[in-house]
Structure formats: C-alpha cells, structure tokens
User: Fold these one by one.
Assistant:
Number 1:
Amino acid sequence: MNQYDNNHIVIMAGGIGSRFWPMSDKQYPKQFIDVLGCGRTLIQLTMDRFKGICPIGNIWVVTQAEYADIVKEQLPEIPVDNILLEPCRRNTAPCIAYVSWKIKARNPKANIVVTPSDHIVMDVKEFQRVIKSAMKFTKSSDAIVTFGMKATRPETGYGYIEADLSMSCPSNNEIYRVDAFKEKPDLATAEKYIQKKNCLWNSGIFVWNVNTIVNAMRVYQPVLSKMFEKIFPYFFTDKEQDMVNELFPMCENISVDYAIMEKADEIYVFSASFGWSDLGTWGSLHENLQRDAHGNVCLGDNIKMYESRNCVVHTTQEKKVVVQGLDGYIVAEKNNTLLVCRLSEEQRIKEFSED
Amino acid sequence: MNQYDNNHIVIMAGGIGSRFWPMSDKQYPKQFIDVLGCGRTLIQLTMDRFKGICPIGNIWVVTQAEYADIVKEQLPEIPVDNILLEPCRRNTAPCIAYVSWKIKARNPKANIVVTPSDHIVMDVKEFQRVIKSAMKFTKSSDAIVTFGMKATRPETGYGYIEADLSMSCPSNNEIYRVDAFKEKPDLATAEKYIQKKNCLWNSGIFVWNVNTIVNAMRVYQPVLSKMFEKIFPYFFTDKEQDMVNELFPMCENISVDYAIMEKADEIYVFSASFGWSDLGTWGSLHENLQRDAHGNVCLGDNIKMYESRNCVVHTTQEKKVVVQGLDGYIVAEKNNTLLVCRLSEEQRIKEFSED
C-alpha cells in the first residue's frame, strides 16, 4: 500500500446550521444546501476539494441518522458503508471517536484529515498543497495538527489558536506548536488578537494518523474510548448500528477541542491561508460572496434590487423578488418561511426561528 | 312589480389591481382576494353589503372573460346569465354601456347602482341607508347621482367632486349639484381641496335609472351607444357573446367620468360618509385596517414582528414570517413572488412588477 491508499478523509456533517434559518433548518441543514448558488451544496464542495488526496473508498461521512438519505443522494460516489450514522447529537468528540475506531478497524496505518462539511475554501489549489504537506507530517509522527488561518479582521464568530511562532517544526516550516486555544472572543479581545501575529483562526480541520487520535482518546477520554472499544468487534457487521444506537447516546456531549486539544500537550498548528470561511452566519456569507456595486449579495434567479445596499438576499425558491430601500438587511425565504432582518441582529435568528 | 324588484346592482370587476402587486396580479386581481383577512374577498364583501337592496337575480357583474370562473366560484348565488364578459379592457364607459343596455332589455324600469368591486365600506348600515335614499331619488327623476365622500385628509390617490353646497335638492337634503370633477391632485392641491368644505372624494359609485344612463350615453357617446343598440336584439341569446366579442374591442377606451360626467350638465352628488376607501394602494390598506400598538398591519397566519413599526405585511401563503427592524415598509409574498418596499415608494410597484 502506498501513502495515497492510506489517506482518509472524514467529513463531519451532523450540524443543524440554526444561524442560517430559514435557508437552513433541522430538516435540511446548510451543509446540504447550495448556499453559494454554484450548483453544488457545501458538503459536495467539501468532498470536491479533496479530490486526488485519497481513494473515494477512504472518504467517510459522519452524520445524523435522519440525514442518511440526503448524504447518499448528494454524495452517491461514497460507499454506503462509509456513511456513519449517529443516533443523536453528541458534538465532535464522540463523532471523531466513532469514525477513528472504525477506520482503525479497516486500516491501522490510516492517515486522516477531519473536516467540517459546511465551510468554504476559495483557494482549493493552496488547500490541497497544505493538506498534503500536513499529511506528510502526520504520516511519520504522532502529532495532532490543527489548521490556523491567518486572521484578516477581528472576527468574533471564530475561536482562535495562539501559536508559538518563534520556531517551526524541523520537518515542516509552516507547522508550529500551539500555546493555547481561545474561545470566541468579544470584539475588544478579537482586536487585541489580530494585533498579535501569532493568533490564528481555528478552522476546525484536523490532521493526524489513526493511532495518534485513538491513543489521545484513550489517554484523555477513557470512558468514551471504552465505548468504541466495545463496539470495535462489530464494525462492518449487521450489529454495528444497533450497538452504536445503544451506546452512542451515553457518550458525553463534548467537542474535540475540549476533549483533546485543550488537554494534550503536543498540539501543532499549520499556519495557512486558503480563503477559508466557516460560513456560520449570514454576515459571513455576505463577506465571502461576490457583492455587486452596491454591496449586495443576491442568491436567486430573479432578484431585483432598488436603492438597496449591503444586503444579502437568498430566495432560491422564489420566481421573482423585488427589494427596495433596504440597507444592511438579510432577506431570506425558503419553504414558505420568510425572514427580513438587520444583518447586525443576526445573532438573534435562532431565537426568531424558535419563537 | 314593486320598487325592490326594479332595483339592480352592477358590480364592475374587470380591474387588474396592479398597485397591489404581488398580492394582486393579472391572474388574480385584488377584487378576488381576501385583502382584509376576514374570510371574504373584496368582491364578496361588495355583494354582501347590498344584501336586501334588490333580488339576487338583479345583481350583475361585468368582468374580463378570463375571470369568469373566479366570479362564478366566488359569487355562486349570482345567475350565470348575469355575469357579463368583456373580451378586452376598455375602461368603465363601455362596461357601463354594455350592462345598461342589457338591464334595459330585461327591465325598462330598472333603477341601478353601479359600484366598483374592490372598495371597502366600514359602516354598512349607513351605506345601505344612503344607497336606498339615492335610489329613491333616481327612481322618479332622471338624475345621475354620484357618491362624494367627506374628505378627511389631503389624499392624492382619489379624484374629487366639487359640490354646490349652497342648496340641496328639494326632495333629498343630502344630494347636491356637482360644480366640477377634479382629477387626482398633487399634495398642495389636495391640501387646498380639504380646506374647502365642498370638495368630496369621488367614490366611483353611481346611481341612476336605466333610461337616464342609456339616454345620457345616446347624447354624449353616440358611437358607443350604436354598438349596443346593434347588440341589443341578441341579448340573452346564443349569439350575444359573439356579438360582444366582435364589437366590444371597437369601443373607445374611456372612463364614464370622461364620457358622461364631465360632459353632462345635471349631475348630482350624494354627500356621504360610510367609512369608504378604494383600497387602491398598500398605503390605503395600512390606513384602513386595524393596526397593532406599533402601527403594523399584519395579514397572515404566523407573522412575528420585532422592532418594526408602520409596516404592512401581507403573506397569507407563508407558514412563518419574521420581520425585524423595519419602519414604514411593505412586505408581501404570494405565489413565490416577494416584495419588500418602502410604503413611501409604493407608486413604483407597478414598474417593479413589470421590470
């Protein structure tokens, strides 16, 4: 087996994208939507940008059981066995544990990239270069590698990684030791962060070999690890899903950042810049997409804007849309649900959707 | 035959309501829509408020051929023979000529109210009183009676009637001679009008007996009259629609105001006040409907307003609507067509709908 055959990609696709309501909802979260209006959904674009990194049979998707049909429909190339179904939502640590033990059962030499399914990457060529570079690094080391994005604005919607830029790794001069992980900051703190050159956005993309992550889980999350040790003999059998359905709900609801990153000592960050955005909010969509001369982003077939600026209009199911006299608003319609809201108030969208 | 049996109501229902787009469109103009959210469409409410004025068989509807099925569905009580179908749009004079000659063929003693189908009347009891009073007046006179509404604001969306208030008619002290008809004014002119007590809004409702209107047509619109004299022998026969389809398109496109009112000398106005509005615009809907504490009018099942004031939201086909941070806007959605527009810019809606 050459290195290519040992490469695996894990796409995490269990999120519900509540901040993108009404475009995104529990029935059809944003990773399954053509948010960019380009003809491919976010999860399809995620798979696309790993083309050539590994065999198609080494791409894994972890998602909620209710999204199984959507994943099969949108990613028909991926073997059905590679679609792992969580019976309930338990954040990223149980998700990564499940898929890591399963990959280990298939290939103990696996070298793995874990990626969210709902981010965007503008520079796919550079993305591929750094992913390959990181995988080369983790193939022959037991490093946990995160991806830190060079911050270009005081973003309060992202977590930050504080890197030790004084010295890069001997074998890869783009990889540094992590000093600390920082949670989403307030604006004042974010402004301090971007003054410092060593504060990078935490992209939520990880690279490691399968033994590294499994061992880290065993050390820092022994209870979680025991669950999957117990399921291990049943992987790729008829009983796997039953076992998962029984044990997965007992897993602690915890992110991999809390479960591993903040506990482990030797964490590395690849300082990269490939036009990344987590597209977590309408505002980030507005930031990332092509704006017209008036700063409007319009996604939909027949949208006419009059005296309007700095708006994001996403009405892909409408036959015709006319917007007049709005500055800095979201206008979104889907499945007979309509939202008109100031972009500056978008943190309340989850509340609006639930009221 | 007693007087009740001679009373006829003509409902003009051929308009396209373009200023109410997208709620109203050519396929389904506003007279056929439950604009008020009360469970009855405007044309149904129009018929309702004439209850008890005449036998149901004396109610006539003149509409475009394409709306025949909608009229039959919405007003199933009205005999199909009483639904007159115009093959094309020719404004109110040809419409009134057609129905007047047809009623004359049925009942030469007919006493007629002509009304638009898309207005609203708040005080139906008072409306019935003044209609009956006017019909009593026209039964035994050859007067053309219009209805003038006491103006309550400098409205630029209505035409005005200048009345000679110095002396009412001997037989009805609410009816006066008309001095002049005034077209829709600009704001400065409208403000002058409402200073003068004798300027009334032209409601577009008329009362006359059938001989009065037919004779007036003969005098002031001889060409138009000859058309219907020619069709007269075919009324209530298989050939009527063919004759109408052939001749109606040759009629001049002219309103009854231009064709008769501004030419005839003896025109009367009934000075009335029954909570009338022509609901011609979103603004008038906003004026006339119940507003919440923040000045919003919301028509739809599940509309949530946050930090919004003075808006009119009409989204009766949406499952859920959230509007945040709008002041003085129209938000309307129908048939996958969405409009968000400042109320102050609503005169441009026709342009928006056509672009």
Number 2:
Amino acid sequence: MFCCTALAVCLAACAAPDTQRVVYLADYLTPEAAESDAVPAVRAALARCAEIGATKLVLPGGRLRLRPDRAAEKYLFISNNDESLKRIAFDLAGLHDLTIEGCGTELLFTGFVSPFNLEGCTNVTIRDLEIDYTRTFHSEGVVKATGPGWLEIEFPEEYRCDIVNGCLRFRDEEGTVYPFSNLLEFDAERREPAFLANDFWLSGGTIPAEKLPNGRVRIRRDDLTATVGNVMVFGAAARYNPAFTLADCRGVAIRDVDLYHCGGMGVIAQRSDDIELSRLVVVPAPGKNRMISITADATHFVNCGGYIRMIDCVFENQKDDATNIHGLYMAVDRVTGPDRVLLRWRNSGQYGVDFIRAGMRLELVDNDNVETYAHRTVKSAERINKVYTEVTFTEPLPEGVERGHVVAADERYPEVLIKGCRMRGNRARGLLLGSRGPIVVEECYFHIAGAAILFEGDANFWYEQAGVRDVVIRNNLFENGNYGCRGWGAACIATGSRIPDRATSRYHRNIRVEGNTFRVFDPRIVHLYCTSGFRFAADNTIEPTTDYPYLLDEQRPFVAYDCDDIEIEKRN
Amino acid sequence: MFCCTALAVCLAACAAPDTQRVVYLADYLTPEAAESDAVPAVRAALARCAEIGATKLVLPGGRLRLRPDRAAEKYLFISNNDESLKRIAFDLAGLHDLTIEGCGTELLFTGFVSPFNLEGCTNVTIRDLEIDYTRTFHSEGVVKATGPGWLEIEFPEEYRCDIVNGCLRFRDEEGTVYPFSNLLEFDAERREPAFLANDFWLSGGTIPAEKLPNGRVRIRRDDLTATVGNVMVFGAAARYNPAFTLADCRGVAIRDVDLYHCGGMGVIAQRSDDIELSRLVVVPAPGKNRMISITADATHFVNCGGYIRMIDCVFENQKDDATNIHGLYMAVDRVTGPDRVLLRWRNSGQYGVDFIRAGMRLELVDNDNVETYAHRTVKSAERINKVYTEVTFTEPLPEGVERGHVVAADERYPEVLIKGCRMRGNRARGLLLGSRGPIVVEECYFHIAGAAILFEGDANFWYEQAGVRDVVIRNNLFENGNYGCRGWGAACIATGSRIPDRATSRYHRNIRVEGNTFRVFDPRIVHLYCTSGFRFAADNTIEPTTDYPYLLDEQRPFVAYDCDDIEIEKRN
C-alpha cells in the first residue's frame, strides 16, 4: 500500500463535490490522540457519519494508535470465533452507503479490541489501510535446545512471560495476560508449519515451565518435540477480536487492506450477502520478525448468500484455514410437539449465532449420512438462550425425526468466486468449500500444509453445513501441499467430511478440475468419498518434485470410494 | 421451614378468591421435570404471570431440581459480584405486585445458574422456600497432615478434583470446572474461621498440588500453614450467581427463605428502594457437613434508597460480611470541558453498574480525605462502556477538580433497620454501615471474626461511598469478636475507611451505642478515626471472657483519634 495510490484516492476524496457528506477523521483528532488512542475520535467521527448519512469517512494517513479503553462495547456471538463482551474500535452497526477511505493509514491496536464491526450494514466499503497490533494475541519463541519431554525456548522481548504455579504465562508491559492453548512448530527457514508438525493442544491453558538462568524458558510435556532453530508458536486461547466481523450485512467490500494481525479470524461474515474482498493481504507484519500473521482463519463465511468474491488476495501464515464457507447445523434435542422441535447447538463456537427465522425453509438431515430427508418451513422460532431454540413448523414433522438429527437453512446459498489468490504458510487447510451455490476457484496459488481444497461439512463434530453442488477448480497452481500434520488432508483436493455412514451418502456433487498444475512431492492429488460427479480434466498437469520427503506408502494420485460418476481423464 | 406454616400458606393461596390471577407452577410441571429440571416450567409459569398480571405464583412444595441448560440468559453487571452472561432460573424482570409463595419448596440447583433476578420490579414478595446447590461453588477439604510449605487435604467425594499441569482443579460429575482463587482455614470444632486465620490469595487461580497414593491431595505454597483436623476452604474465584439480585426495584420482600448456598452474595440490591428481609436464614445446608453457607456477603446494598430492613435474619458461615450498605464512587479520569468530566470505575467489581442519571445531584469528593467539596447536578451522562462515563453538569465545575477525585450520588440514602439478626462464623466482618440515612441496629447477636460493626467507605481502594450521619446501636450482644485475621477489624465497633488524610476528615458522624453487652476476650470495644459525634452510653456492659487467647499489647477498650465529640460515658 504505497503513497501514490493512497494520495490519489485521498485527493479524490478531498475533492468530492458533495463535501457536506464527507467526514474527515482528522477533524476529530489531535496529534496526541493519534499517538495515544484515536478511538474516541473514531467514535465521534462515526457518530457524525450516522448523523449526516455520510458517504465517506476519510482517515488521515500515517499511524493511529487505538486502544480498548474507551471503545464501544457489545456482547457479540460470532460464529467460529469466541463470544464475549467486546471492545470495538470502528463499530459501523447500522451504517449504509459509506466508504471508509483509509488513505494508507496504519491502524495500530493495543490489547483486546476488535478493529471493525459491521452489523446490519448495506453497501459499505473499507479500503486502503493496514491493521496491526503492538503485542500479538499469540506468542512466538525460538527452540534453542531439546531433550526428552522438554524444549528450551528463547522469547524475543515482546513476548514477556513469567512463571505462575510452575506454569508459563504471557503478559504485555501493561500487565494484560495473553492466554494460550496450543503449540505448533514452524520451520524458521521455510516460514511455514514444520514438516509433519502437529498441534499440541494444552489442557488448562498453560504448560509447566521454568525460567533458566540464561533467560530461556524450559517447557515440559512428555510428547513434546521440535527441531532446534525452529519457531514454537503458542497459539491464542480464544478468538475474541476478529479484524472484520460482518453480521446481517449486504454489499460489503474490503479492498487494499493489509492485515498483519488480529485476535481471531481476518474476515468473518455471518448471515450476510454480497461480500467482496479484493487485495486483502494477510501476511506477517513486515520487519517485525513474526512467523504468524493472524491467529485464525483468514476468512470465513457462515450462512451467507448473494456473492462471495475473493480476488487477488494473499493469505499467508495465519493460524488456520484460508477460507471456510458453510452453513450451520443445529441439532434436534427432542421433539416437543407434532410440529415442534427443541434444537440446540452442539459446537460451542456456534452458540448464539441464531439463523432460524420465521418463513425460512429448513432441511431435516440425518446426522449419519448428512443427507436431507425432508424440508419444513419455520412458523416461529423461540430463542431460549444461546444454546437452545425451539422451532414450530407450518406443517407436522415427518416420521422418524430423532435426537441427533440436524437442521439447516436450505436457501440462499452464495455464489463464490476465488480468483488470483495466493495462499501459503498457514496452519491446516486452504479453501474449505461448502456452499451449494456455484463456486469457481481459478488462477490461485496454493502451498498448503494440508489439503489445498477440502470439501468438509458434518453433523456430528463441527456441525457445519456443506455439500457442494457446482464447483469449478481451474488454472490454479498447487505446489507441494500436505507437508504438515497428517490429519490436515489426504490429497490436494479432498473430501474431509466426518460422515459415519458413507455408503449411503453422496454429500458433495459436481466438481470439475481443469487446467491446473500440481507441482507435488506428495503424489496424492485427489481423495474423494461421498461424492457424486467429479471430473478431473485431461488438461491438468502433474509435475513431481523432491522438495520434501514423501514418507507414506500410498502412491495413487486418485482415490475415490463411496462415490458415483468419477471421471479422471487421461492426460497427455 | 416446617410443614404446618407452609401448608397453611398453601391452603390460603389455593383458596384465593381471585383464582384467575394465581398461577400454580404445578400446572406446568411434570414429575420428571421436577426431578430433572424445573426451569422450563418456571419460565412458562412466569410468562403466564406476566401475561395475566398474576398476584401469586404458587410453588408446589417438595424438591425441584433446577439447571442452567434452558434458563433465561442475560448479561448482568451486578455490583460487588461478577459480571457475566448469566443463566437465571426465576427471571422476574418487569413483574409487579406479585408474591411467590414457596410453600416450603426446596429449590435444588446444579451448575452456574442464578436463582432469582429482579429488575425493575415493584411490590414483589418471595417467601417460604429453600435454596441449595448439588455442588457448591467453593470446595472444602480436611487438613490431614502438614509440613513446611505443604498441606495434605482429604476431600469428601463431592469435591472431585484432578491435577492439571501440576496444579489442582475441581470439577463436578458433569465435568463443569469450579475455579478457586483463595484459601481460608476454618476451625472444625467451632465451625468458624480458625483463630487468627488469614486469606491465602492465589495468583493464577490454582495452587501446585499432587495426588497421593492414599487419595489425599498435597498442596504446596511456601507460607501455607493450618492445623490438622481443620477444614480448608477453597474459595470460589468469582461471584457469578448471587441468590437474589435486585436492580432498580421498589418494594421487594424476601421472607422465610433458607439460603444454604449460592455462587455470590445472598441478596445484592442496587439502585433499589424499600427492601425487607425477614427471617432470611443463611446457614450451611443441614446434614451435608459443609462448613460454608454462601460464597460471599449475606446481603449487600448499593445506591439504594427508601428503607432497608433486616429482621430476625440469620447470617452464618458465609464467605464474607453479613451486610454492606453503601453508595458508589466513580473517579475523575479527566476534566473534558468547563462543565464536563470523564469518569471511570476504579474497582472492577463496579464495572457497568451505572447509577448516574440526568437530574441527579452528585457530590464532588476529594479522594484524600473523602470530604465533599462541591455539588453539581447532572445535565446528561453518556456511557462510553462499562468502565467510562462522561458527565455534563448544569453548571461549570468548581476550581480544583482533579484526576483521582471522585463523585457519588448525594441523595435518597436509605433508612436502615437491622433487628433481631444473628451473625456468626462468617469470614471477615459483620455489618458494614455506609448509609447517610438513619440506621438502627438492635437486638442482634454478633460473633464475628473481625469487627462486628464497621464504618468503611473510601475513595482509593474499594470506592464505596459511606460516611454515616445517624446511627443507633442498641441492645445487641457482641460476643468474642475479632478472633480472625488482624486485618478484619481493630475493635467490635470500628472505623475501617482507607482515608489517607485523616486529620482533615470527619467522614462518619453521630453514632450512639446504647444498652449493648460486649462479652469479649479481646478488650478492644471501639476504635475510631475520622468520626465526629460518638456516644458510648453508660448502660453498655462489658464482660471479659477467656474463650480465646488475647495476644496483642493493646488494652484500651476505646481508641479514637482524628475525631471530634467522642463521649464515652462512665459505666456502673
């Protein structure tokens, strides 16, 4: 994000003819506030935007420091992140037809504060800015020595830590605690998850540790291993502060944003339509020697509709997948009347993310094979609390509805275009595609520790509704995937759904793979089950590499079982 | 609470002539629900009460089990307890002119659920019921052996625990974690805090521990001491679930309630008027061999008005004071205009407890001597978030308003009557009296580990507005107080305010002590500072005992400094 573009945009903004409806943050900001906490100025400027129905909010350029102290406060339930009473710097709730012209401004946050919250917004664009934090929500240290059941870690100064009750705790210079719940080793040279590295999940949110006289910290756990020189990442325990939270929005564009850090997902959208991400660049902050960019998925879309477009984005080194596009399954707790069910969330990451509305068409789904066996229309929905909702339908329930079955919205699936995006170095997988609308993935680059493209969705573990209907994967470069944890994917393009009864399930349908190049040390290109209709065209190219060792017996590039209509065309 | 009274009341309720406006919980309850979870039935019955404007809700008698699963949910800021998204069994918000006839029903809760929430209620009476929990929020174990820096504890079966990262964790049979943050030793014979016992505050919310082959748990900390045979109480880390929460209510009576346990204060009332507690009995559950009743103060009143009456109550073995009646001080963060200040809470237990309203008269107070130096009337108050509020006054601020000064409401102080109450065995103090309305304490029994009656209030630590104006303490029996931690009080009746500049402060005024009996091993009867007007009448009786050893040099029964008009009458 360099000056020439930013300047041109700012000049354009300044020269806007309808100056009455442009708000300049600079008018609310003293130099002292910019250097200490611009949040009160942001709130005042946004209040002015709401008051006059502004079409533009222009940021001043340069660096703004932003803190939680005087930020807006809301209890938010954000799917696949963590609910909490949050502080929000830019709370755009209820704003419409507004562009935030970042003018290249660096938004530098400190502490537990969410950058942008969009609720019930229509036609909002955010562009040309950077987001970073003075202290990351995760922590990183270099492995300096190892032994049986211990690692010696050297933490850079910014990851202050102490030992409490014999266990490790991270705090910043203000005393704020940064809890962690997992460890993952990253390769210091390749700057990606270490070869075959797996997550160490930590119970109790810490690990036994001692500070050594040389200033290092020795952490202890029986199964702990790592390579000296690599970076051990202490993953944030919760996802309280995504960078962009969208709920019940329509027409949101995020363009030319460099997202260096946040405490949760980069963009999480729920119950929203028509979302465009252009040149959203998620990478570790330049010059700060961090391994990790953001602490969870780069993007994530839940029960969205209209279009989802990701164009020319970069998703690197975030602590989870590049994207996940899916609906939500709520489980039947019990049938409470001929036309009534008590539903509950089974995945705590979905608590409170209500999506069921009167008039909505729900599918009733057998959790064993994830197949839809009936549809019903919602007459009314009574929210009991964040876990339970009771739904009455316009008609009686069919026979056989059982505890454990699930329901999901069966309407308004988004059309998805992912084009020209570059993904590498992150934990786990690339694209988790679960929309039943048309999906195109083209001209992307994948160097992913697990599967590059995964068809997930299940009704027993994550409770994420998926089951694609029309997917085109074309002209992408898949380079050396599946170098990370074995559990992150069985091939470049794979089914990953936890479906107990696979024989009776054809959950995913109509996937075409055309004109892609697979430069791979791992021969496993496609691994499918529960799929009906898959074509791997002759114009795909597979180029073997020896960039990583391949340690498995499996040599088949194409594996498919419990599938129909699988076509692997002969290549030249 | 025995059958004859309960039966008579229930018969009376059943025979109410206006049967249309009586709701019977039994009509919403199956026997299975009563034994598993009556909460959905309670919610349905309360919805019916609201619908018809019921005058009575009649409980069925017997035992009802109640769980958080399908309870109402609200984010509540409750002063001196802990804010959170709470589950509530009886959410009476907005109800008026209603009596809940308990009919002796035993409400037996499981998990993190608050029994009663009253918000914006007028003329509500709750009577004749018992409250207990299947698993307490604190934990108790018997000290079986001690050594340098360790104790061996034997936990009864109900306090299941495991060791995580070398530290102790309590969980119930469902896996719910019960966090703790402090230890306090109780005398197993006397069933009260052990002689001179002090709190061990635990950082990190746990303590290093190991399970021994004999089933005991050895906990480790350098300064840990206790007497073999005594009970170590692992105090609950948070106060999420008070039994009765009152906010913005008028005319609430709680009568004939046996409160055996809850996870916070027994009755906490904020911004409420006209509260009567009659025969509220807070004691450890009979027959369950528990040392502790509830986990915090028996009662607590914040910014209340009208009358507060506690008559014939029993407050025993709760983990904090019997009562505390005070206002709240918000601190000046900065002066933001000639007539404007940015205020902030300094005590996190007060976060979100907004009390400042347009039209309210605030006092401006010097935090050094806690003296009021000016008054202003609120023109408007803008809540920024749970910590900050910006206030604009109808007039300019006086000279000299500084960061650190505090403001409080200076109006509608409650008239307090505490009569015939019995207090013993609890942690810390008895009555913390801070109302500027007339206060009468009579015919009570005190056997308190610290001061029986304390005049607190400060503007630098707890930020609780006090400063009494008219107190009568008469015909009470004070028996062997101050046997606990030295910090809990310097005499039976004492000032306890943290006032840096005592010479210029006369914070408390006009206290009369008449006709009381002091049966004491500790000669310290009265200890005052910053008090103007105190009379200890000739008809008080002091009877020395040798029931506990007295270990201090201080032999003066009456100490007063930085005071005016102190009168200790000669006794016969």
